[in-house]
TrEMBL record:
Top-level taxonomic group: Eukaryota
Keywords: ATP-binding, Helicase, Hydrolase, Nucleotide-binding, Nucleus
One GO term describing the cellular component: nucleus
InterPro entries with a match to the protein in the record: Beta-barrel_MTR4, DEAD/DEAH_box_helicase_dom, Helicase_ATP-bd, Helicase_C-like, MTR4-like_stalk, P-loop_NTPase, RNA-DNA_Helicase, SKI2-like
UniProt keyword Hydrolase, yes or no: yes
Gene Ontology terms for molecular function: ATP binding; hydrolase activity; RNA binding; RNA helicase activity
Pfam families: DEAD, DSHCT, Helicase_C, MTR4-like_stalk, MTR4_beta-barrel
The organism of origin for this protein: Porphyra umbilicalis (Purple laver)
Protein name listed in UniProt: Uncharacterized protein
Highest classification ranks of the organism: Eukaryota, Rhodophyta, Bangiophyceae, Bangiales, Bangiaceae
């Protein structure tokens, strides 16, 4: 329509690979098409421009003429707005696009599309139409394959109905046979795992795919069954790059293509690699991929060479790859559906912990099953190796996509660009963001919640006790408890208390679960070193204590009856408090017995008495245990008026070392004195029913009051501008660093930082203007800049660096330390050490050698990085260098501009690293 009306249209996508794919598709349909990504620019004057969303944002900030001529902007895969780090780019762009420009948003996974449309309508003061379908064009069937099981179980049919009987049968089969290894486990390493860089890559530091040597597992069996039943092509989703490769190697003996298909694969592959030099064509990853591809098996993950990934995508789209092993990223951007989707595991590593898949993630990946116009139904199969509750399985398999909630956050590049622009300011963008819109919409519900909570708080009756006096009493009581905990920690150190753990010593035992009152030590043990618990010093000892407990069916702790011998091996019951017997009521009422509780940690000592009682050598008979109990009872009666048996004096008896104890005792005495004079005790005695009831009510009211405060904060947030405090703090950081002046006018530092959006603009500008890069040889300069673009995990061993490179890295980290310290001082939550460590030198040697003329194979041989990660680093570096050329030009520093230009020339060598996309 735009081309018909002689208008310009921009088509944006979230990733470069999808932009390249869309450029190819649109070029086949229309002729006047251009492409603009961070890597390449083709025909920028075309009427239809395909670009990444970041490119469009940069054009808006620069005030590009192209934007003024555009009538339509198409946002493909707009659900990327929920991405925590990059989602804000979409909001910035949508807000800043001129009002006359119309939008088209495309997505298959936005359940709250109406809310999104309402935001657009509110933002642009124009109608926004939501065109949607609630049903899939190709219905899905969801199957479960239990580990060690015999076959597939249909859990959710094509109508979306969950089948509990089938699910129960599947779970009952779980672990029914040895799966032979190599199934869908072992994904704790995540997609960033350091594994072999190709299906049969040479073994270097990173090692080979460990699973390849194992026998066929569940994945092999299921894939073979899929092929035999004609359910291919299939995408096998795994959550680690290592597992992708090892599972693919298990299938290497299967041949899924006929002779004609094999010949066609070889022709396509060799033509794709024709542009490479002979040395690049001999790279292990390139030579190893072809034999698998000829058999109809492909691998796709971020560690592969971009050229290899694109060949795999093309072959899969053409039906020449029948089984594709891929990581989650394959489902996020590329439009390459299959008949079947197989999940190798139900858990994934998310960068912090191994957790169950979320329904939204499952929907995104399972949505690749079922090809429109080719399949009457799509199949998803989940390999399950652990017990699942039916409710959890139903939530996963029948769940909806994640709602599109704003991930808007302020960034320094955004802030500086907005402060520099005359027609925009940060508060303008924040007020018009989806985050603010959703906060405003939530205001009535939040106000209702606040009213309800306030009513619940006011309904709590404290009785006749004055609320103010009760608050003072609770505050003092909590302070006293805290001080006594500190005192116990000092007194009950093993070096102090162990000599007093003699037979017959009275001790008070309190666990997090219950107060057991006073008991008698019958033994103590030193735990063997090297056990699974090797942390606190008190865990090196345990004690056996005779306690008065209510027996459960006559069974004591870890034994066959109440008569548990005190001299048997300690059972470490503190590792499972649920196994302890129930303490008897403190008044001694009810049916109770004296039971030896074995293996208690010293941390459960609540008091050590100065009194010892006689304990017979054999406590196996109930009458002897009762006799000891009677002795304890006599002691309790004698000291009833003194609050219990006298404790060992910390100073005179235990002789606690150090100077902290006297001060602590003085604090306790002061608090106890204030407690004794507390007004509340005038109307309710300590321990009385009135005071106990009032305290319970007060605690309940305090818990509701905390919820009221949280609800009040949420209402205040919705009523005003969100992120107001954060904005103030960030402006303070910019002023402290000299990027803006006292009037928030952008200075030369700030204008320089505006040119950088690929890396940390604050630290990079500090290094740039600090003179640390001046005079640095281009080879060293580019190598040092790699610390800004590497996003891989921390290496096991840091590479040895050239002295000049090492000095450059130290300069960058020193600048990072300054920025982090100032951020922390300005009340922005900052982990200074983690911030500095984020500038990793992992790729410095790789880039240094590459810019020095080393071949790609040589630089790969001496690093733990994947080939794909190295190329991503090179390309991001090239993009950063282009930005730095503009920044140096802004500074008017011709010498620095030449350094960056020369560095880019060293980096951007012809060959596999900067090979053109096959889609272009």
């Amino acid at each position: 329509m735009a081309l018909r009306d002689k208008q310009r249209v921009i088509y944006t996508s979230p990733i470069k690979a999808l932009s390249n794919q869309k450029y190819r598709e649109l070029s086949a349909e229309f002729t006047d098409v251009g492409l603009m990504t961070g890597d390449v620019t083709i025909n920028p004057s075309a009427s239809c421009l395909v670009m990444t969303t970041e490119i469009l944002r940069s054009m808006l900030y620069r005030g590009s003429e192209v934007v003024r001529e555009v009538a339509w902007v198409v946002f493909d895969e707009v659900h990327y707005m929920r991405d925590k780090t990059r989602g804000v780019v979409w909001e910035e762009t949508i807000i800043m696009v001129p009002a006359a420009v119309k939008f088209v948003f495309l997505s298959a996974t936005i359940p709250n599309a109406r809310e999104f449309s309402e935001w657009i309508a509110h933002l642009k003061a124009a109608p926004c139409h939501t065109i949607y379908t609630a049903t899939r064009p190709v219905p899905l069937q969801h199957f479960l394959f239990p580990s060690g099981g015999t076959g597939l179980h249909l859990i959710v049919d094509e109508k979306g109905e969950f089948r509990p009987d089938s699910f129960d049968r599947a779970i009952a089969e779980l672990g029914g046979a040895d799966d032979g290894g190599g199934g869908g486990g072992g994904n704790a390493a995540g997609d960033g795992d350091k594994a072999s860089a190709g299906p049969a890559a040479k073994k270097r530091k990173r090692g080979g795919g460990a699973g390849a040597e194992k026998g066929p597992g569940d994945c092999y069996k299921v894939v073979k069954m899929i092929v035999e039943r004609g359910f291919e092509p299939v995408i096998v989703f795994s959550f680690s790059r290592r597992e992708c490769e090892s599972l693919a190697m298990q299938l290497a003996k299967l041949d899924l293509n006929n002779a004609d298909e094999r010949a066609l694969v070889e022709t396509v592959y060799k033509n794709a690699m024709e542009s490479l030099s002979a040395k690049d064509r001999a790279l292990p990853q390139i030579t190893a991929a072809l034999p698998l591809l000829k058999r109809g098996i492909g691998i796709h993950h971020s560690g592969l060479l971009p050229l290899v990934k694109e060949v795999v995508e093309i072959l899969f789209a053409e039906g020449l790859v029948k089984v594709l092993f891929a990581t989650e990223t394959f489902a996020m951007g590329l439009n390459v559906p299959a008949k079947t989707v197989l999940f190798t595991a139900i858990r994934k590593f998310d960068g912090e912990a191994v957790r169950l898949l979320r329904a939204g993630e499952y929907v995104q990946m399972s949505g690749r099953a079922g090809r429109r116009g080719l399949d009457d139904r799509g199949l998803t199969i989940l390999l399950c190796d652990e017990k699942l509750e039916p409710a959890a399985a139903k939530d996963l398999l029948c769940g909806a996509a994640d709602p599109l909630n704003s991930t808007f956050h302020l960034g320094y590049n955004m802030l500086l660009n907005l402060l520099r622009a005359e027609e925009a300011d940060p508060e303008f963008v924040i007020r018009r963001s989806l985050a603010q819109f959703q906060a405003d919409r939530a205001l009535p519900a939040r106000q209702a919640t606040l009213t309800k909570l306030e009513a619940a708080r006011d309904a709590v009756d404290l009785g006749p006790v004055d609320a103010g006096a009760l608050r003072e009493y609770v505050k003092l009581r909590d302070a006293a408890d805290t001080l006594r905990d500190e005192l116990r920690a000092l007194v009950h150190q093993p070096t102090v208390v162990v000599p007093f753990l003699q037979l017959g010593r009275l001790v008070r035992v309190r666990t997090p679960a219950a107060d057991y009152g006073w008991g008698v030590i019958v033994a103590y043990h030193r735990r063997p070193a090297g056990g699974k618990r090797s942390s606190p010093a008190e865990e090196a000892y345990s004690m056996d204590v005779l306690l008065r407990c209510v027996p459960a069916n006559g069974v004591g702790v870890g034994g066959s009856g109440a008569a548990v011998s005190y001299n048997r091996k300690a059972t470490s019951t503190d590792e499972g408090l649920e196994s302890l017997p129930t303490p008897a009521p403190l008044d001694g009422g009810g049916r109770s017995e004296w039971v030896p509780v074995n293996g208690l940690s010293l941390r459960y000592l609540d008091g050590v008495s100065a009194i010892r009682v006689y304990v017979p050598s054999d406590l196996r008979t109930p009458d002897k245990r009762v006799a000891v109990g009677n002795s304890v009872g006599e002691v309790m009666k004698r000291f009833a008026n003194d609050g219990g048996p006298p404790l060992l004096d910390p100073l005179e008896d235990l002789k606690v070392p150090g100077t902290a104890l006297p001060t602590l005792i003085q604090k306790i005495e002061t608090v106890d004195d204030r407690l004794g004079k507390c007004v509340v005790l005038e109307s309710a005695a300590e321990g009385s029913d009135t005071l106990v009831t009032a305290l319970v009510a007060y605690r309940e009211r305090a818990a509701v009051e905390e919820q009221v405060r949280a609800a009040r904060r949420a209402v205040k947030l919705s009523e005003g501008i969100i992120m107001k405090d954060e904005l103030k703090r960030m402006k303070r950081v910019l002023r402290r660093l000299g990027f803006t002046d006292a009037e928030n006018v952008v200075q030369i530092k700030g204008r320089t930082a505006c040119e950088v959006n690929t890396a940390n603009e604050l630290v990079l500008t500090e290094v740039l203007l600090g003179g640390d890069l001046n005079g640095m040889p281009p080879q060293v300069l580019v190598a040092v800049l790699s610390v800004f673009v590497v996003d891989e995990g921390k290496p096991d061993d840091q590479p040895s660096l050239d002295a000049r490179c090492e000095a450059g890295v130290k300069a960058v980290r020193a600048a990072a330390k300054r920025v982090a310290d100032i951020s922390a001082e300005c009340k922005i939550p900052t982990d200074v050490d983690a911030y500095v460590e984020g500038f990793s030198p992992l790729a410095v040697k790789v880039v240094y050698d590459w810019c020095g003329g080393a071949s790609f194979d040589d630089v790969c041989a001496d690093t733990t990085l994947f080939e794909g990660s190295i190329i991503r680093c090179f390309r991001r570096l090239e993009e950063l260098l282009r930005q730095l050329v503009s920044a140096a030009r802004t500074l008017g520093n011709g010498e620095l501009e030449k350094q960056f230009t020369d560095g880019a020339a060293l980096l951007q060598r012809s060959g596999v690293a900067f090979a053109a996309s096959l889609y272009i």
